[in-house]
## 1
Amino acid sequence: MRLDPIDSALAARIVARDERSGDDWHPEYPFEDELVPLQSLAAREEADPVFTLYAIRDDLGVAVGGFGFFGPPDETGTVEFGYGLIPAARGRGLATAAVAEGLRIAAAHGALRAIADTDETNLASLAVLARSGLTEIRREGGMVYFAREL
């Protein structure tokens, strides 16, 4: 598994499904939940080169999902992230590996704490966050909120 950063131009191509040689996108990529963040990134002239969106690539190098930061760390050093995989790529440990790599990237670039949330019915995501060392900090409105010191 590897994370490949996505810049504004690539985000625009992904949204438009303008796949080119070497892109290696799974036919289901991007999945529906990724479109809004990709559209937002595509609309920016410049994106943060580190605290941005990343394509999750499987062991064959095929883009099967996304990992992304909601921006750079805030004044407390906290960075928020999210992730997701196409259905065909789930259950293989890719999400856990992507979160581990994303947290490594964040810590290497000055983040002190990471936060994430997921729907309380999303048992797979709850397990990924727990395996990634995040601790549940609260439940509210059907969502579970997690944090981890980096």
## 2
Amino acid sequence: MRKVVITGMGSVTPIGNTVDAMWTSILEAKCGIGKLTQFDTENCDIKIAAEVKEFDLKNYVKPLEMKKIDRFSQFAIASSYEAYIDSGLQSREFNRDMFSVIFGSAAGGSTIGPEYHKIMEQGCNAVSKMTIPINLVNMAASNIAIKLKAFGTCTPVVTACASGTDCIGKAYRDIKNGYSNVTLAGASDACIQPVFIAGFNSIGALTKSTDPLRASIPFDKDRNGFVMGEGSGSLILEEYEHAKNRKAKIYAEIVGYGSTCDAYSLTSPDFGLKQGIRAIGEAIKEAEISPGEISYINAHGTSTKYNDKYESMLIKSVFCNENPKIAVSSTKSMMGHLLGAAGAVEAIITTKAINENYLPPTIGYQQVDEECNLDYIPNIGRKKKIRYAMSNSLGFGGHNSVLILKSKGD
């Protein structure tokens, strides 16, 4: 089996529109949550969100093209360009038939609503001819493949909030088994829209807090829902010898991936834990390590009552014997929940944590919950040498997805 390494990274997030900007915000424990500005909230319970700020697509596409690309695809193009340029591949000749894109989204495009209103007011003929090409979930992956001339497989993975992690996992397996040499993997979402906000609010998933600093508070006893965020994360995954031969910089190695389904509920985790434990176990087994060798977990940690309780129970079940004091944090405390993009951005953050030997904090943490009693790195990050780190993603529909990354120094 072939080794798989990360050679490029790119991101668009509520705390920075590049990887460096995002990481600086994490070092500063910056909160990217604020007043929801993308639509009028007068008749809406939800008043805050984690919006991407000062985003400009003009550096990546021509002005006339922008109207043909939904916001989720715009973020995808920007993050993928950053990752591609960061990898150095733009100045290299390589086999583009073995260059793939595995890039997902939880929701895809968000312009269906306005087009529906056109039908109601003006009739069917008023609908834009770009409605379908803009909104299909695969359009982020397709736009990336077109821009980067990637002729290998072009596949979106849609597993709700686990989409980004599963895209990276599938890309890892493809390269490991010889189906690709280079893959752009990641995910993007832009769901700060009335229908998505109202829909998540109707099932009690969103916080109604109006205080940005006490809104997304993973593992805190006062948590009462997640904050809707938006953004994108992209990683260039590459076969090790391919990267080595072109003298590419290597950020980290991906060594394990686990993916299971609870097959239990559309929205609730299964507190029996069996399939979540199995997903972590699969990743650990593939990495050929023990739980005691993992130094840090970037948790899914959404700030909802049941997700955080479930994930804490899950971590304790796996690590209680060999690694009971393992460090865990949720960077959603700073940028809200990016839905499908969350796992991709969090994989980048986990990679940076390994590179910098720094554990990102869970900010806004004040009240200890007896049911969530792990080391959540409250409010202030800390230095720690990291050899192996794990990133978790959990999605509606019962998806449990886990990545294990290894320091490039080994």
## 3
Amino acid sequence: MSDNEATTESLYEPPPESNDITEKARFFYPKLLDIQQKGHYTYRRTLASPSQHRVTTVDPATGAKREMLMFASNNYLGLSTHPRVVEAAKKAVVDYGYGTGSVALLSGTSEVHRRLEQKIAEFYRCESAVVFPTGYQANVGTIQAMIGAGDVVLSDMYAHASLIDGVKLSEGSLKYFQHNDMVHLEQMLNRASRFFKGKLIVVDGVFSMDGDIAPLDEIQKLAKAYGAAVLVDEAHAVGMIGATGRGSAEHFGLDGQIDLTIGTLSKAPSGIGGYLTGKAEIVEYVRHFARSYIFSTSIPVSVAAGLIEVFDIIEHDAELRNQLRSNVDYLLAGFHKLGFHTFGSSTAIIPVLIADDIKLRKVCKALHERGIFATPVTFPAVAKGRSRIRFSVMATHTREELDTLLNAMSELKQTFDLS
């Protein structure tokens, strides 16, 4: 096979059955090396600068540093380098040191952590909030704590993997409904009422791979009608949708009404951590029964201090949100004009369908060579036949930078016959 050809095998092809648990690694590794050697591996590229709309990377082929346009970051509002956020974090490092040294329930809670939890609760117009070390742990821990034997989780089939993992760690059952299909959800709720006790509907506010929005208003109505609770993962919604960036509930006029609102602090908030917010009784129950919270060291105080500034900026700086909206609309219109399928996205997550995995790798390599940082998404992250480049838009991208991407994709559409 020539250097210009990609392997015809999938990187995630199931390994043969074996009694040796390490056999799967020996099966996978040569495939990984093959793709890397052909220059079609675009994961784990090294940054040598802050994650901004323009970044310095270490080129995997040459080892040389180069500047690239970043279209693969969740830093939607550019807050990771905002002066107020950086200064707050720097001051907290001086005042509180590098790490917390303990889990939150023991000695790992500072006054800054408490202020952050209060800030998040007030931001969502809820009674209370609890901060986890990561968004993944917030989802896993909350569901594990709340769902017991005889309960069922009804999950949108495109819900984030961490939500599904939470059900697997609980004693409850998991059922899927078709993506954003309210007729199917109602059928599932009707059936679940006959066979299960507690019912929890689980959705992403903004779906992480397709960039579309869950119909939370319709979901809330169905939940009330069938006596179910609702959990919405706001990881990609906070700072992006809603009149003041408060996410899905605000977008649909349901502020403070959702049973379980979970989010990550690593997307638009640009830090690390996760949170649950809602009624105080629910928050405190999860705080004391979520294993991923109880047995994990709390986030550094410096991160918590920066995040307090982040939520203040999201709430009060309309200019950033408006610029993000403008950039999203411009790029979506450009992709549609070029004839690309973007999965119905209306947010800063803009997937472009390239179903052929070989073409997808070649396009991503060609974008890299043109100084554009973008990443492919393939099975098992998405279903087979739905592979895509997942472009992420930032408020700090200039119109000229967006045009650079559109011009490159127009050229590559012709080069690789992308229909």
## 4
Amino acid sequence: MDQADKLRRIIERQYASEQVNSQQSSPKQTARIITVTSGKGGVGKSSITVNLAIALSRIGKRVVILDADFGLANVEVMLGIRPLYNLADLMFRGKNLSDIITRGPENIGFISGGSGIQELTNLTKEQIAYLVSKLEELDKIADIIIIDTGAGITDTVLEFVTASSEVLLVTTPEPTSITDAYALLKTLNRKANFSSDNTTIRIIVNRITKDDNGEEIYKKLSLVSAKFLKLKPEYLGYLPMDVSVSKAVMKQLPVICAFPDSDFSRYITNFAMKLCNAELNESKRIDKKGIAHLFNYLFKSMGKK
């Protein structure tokens, strides 16, 4: 039995225990929200999102990706699928949640934000109430929702990151990428509604070569953040520079599917197990408020409620 099988069995036992408890107390089910972001584009954020989702699905989690980057369709390209509907169809065109969830590899779900993300600030209170009620259904059918934000330090990106209790911040060894990652943390820290006590930020250093040291890059970023921002991001790990990534993009397949034995695939699987271990660790409680709560928070910060 390999490590993934062992962890899957632990999760299954935990799920069975939670089912017994739910029958006794019937708590409202909510999904775990993980927001993936970066200070700049071109760091491999969407590739990490897609492959991490599949790795989590293989462990036994029900995973849905919400593509919150309305400007690009990176997730669609990497999955090799084109959704028939997106979030805007749910908001304005009477589609149900099941209509806008596209099934991808390994049974992961995918929701395209489309123009819906851009239109969030224009919703009426009635439309907000309708959207939140629909998103509550998503909390019931997903264990983990991964939000792939747009790249850079835009208002929309910051709102999603601020509203999330778990954030994966992707950077690369390039000095500009590290600087932009710090700039995002700095801007985030200045937001009045951001709470470092209620947010776990984990750093991923992508595209590490034999001449780089991912942990040293993290330590430098963490040291500066702790000194000037009083923030202490955690280190999830690094991903190696791997030619399999570009080959998979050309095939329009996730790396973990096209090249399951690649270094990238092994490392991303390890990330998934680390995240599940964090959830199981009682000393590291995961605040699972769900996607409906996140959008309620977004609207409140926009002054819509």
